[in-house]
């Protein structure tokens, strides 16, 4: 990215059966000028402000870009798409959580969401809720920092 290193995998995102965002109407979030065949890191590289951005800024921008790529023209994610993203793009955080009551409660809340769609705020809350309950986070906390 602009000569910067980006820790996200440089892979194109594509979900079978998902509508092509370039063929859909323009989102209220941002113009959809980049088709999904372009990798996330290349999409982020086109955002000049992120060239010197911190790792945290790039992480949030990556989540926002993934959300935008898979959201409908109204800037919302269908429940099925959200669950698919959790399974395909967030699996290291969801792995091993399937039988835990708190994880099941989160997915039940997703199923009971009245609109049947998630906006970006709801999506980020879901990601953070899963993260704080994940085994992977516990592994991250146990890593010793080299000084």
Automatic annotation (TrEMBL):
<dbReference type="InterPro" id="IPR034325">
    <property type="entry name" value="S-100_dom"/>
</dbReference>
<dbReference type="InterPro" id="IPR013787">
    <property type="entry name" value="S100_Ca-bd_sub"/>
</dbReference>
<dbReference type="GO" id="GO:0048306">
    <property type="term" value="F:calcium-dependent protein binding"/>
</dbReference>
<protein>
    <submittedName>
        <fullName>Sentan</fullName>
    </submittedName>
</protein>
<dbReference type="GO" id="GO:0005509">
    <property type="term" value="F:calcium ion binding"/>
</dbReference>
<dbReference type="GO" id="GO:0046914">
    <property type="term" value="F:transition metal ion binding"/>
</dbReference>
<feature type="domain" description="EH">
    <location>
        <begin position="99"/>
        <end position="147"/>
    </location>
</feature>
<dbReference type="InterPro" id="IPR000261">
    <property type="entry name" value="EH_dom"/>
</dbReference>
<dbReference type="InterPro" id="IPR011992">
    <property type="entry name" value="EF-hand-dom_pair"/>
</dbReference>
């Amino acid at each position: 990215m602009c000569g910067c290193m980006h820790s996200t995998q440089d892979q194109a995102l594509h979900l079978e059966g998902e509508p092509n965002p370039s063929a859909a109407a323009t989102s209220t979030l941002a113009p959809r000028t980049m088709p999904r065949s372009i990798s996330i890191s290349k999409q982020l590289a086109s955002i000049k402000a992120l060239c010197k951005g911190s790792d945290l800024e790039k992480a949030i921008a990556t989540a926002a870009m993934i959300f935008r790529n898979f959201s409908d023209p109204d800037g919302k994610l269908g429940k099925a798409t959200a669950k698919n993203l959790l399974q395909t793009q967030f699996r290291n955080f969801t792995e091993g959580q399937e039988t835990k009551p708190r994880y099941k409660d989160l997915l039940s809340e997703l199923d009971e969401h009245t609109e049947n769609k998630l906006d970006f705020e709801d999506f980020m809350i879901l990601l953070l809720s899963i993260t704080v309950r994940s085994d992977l986070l516990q592994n991250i906390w146990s890593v010793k920092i080299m000084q």
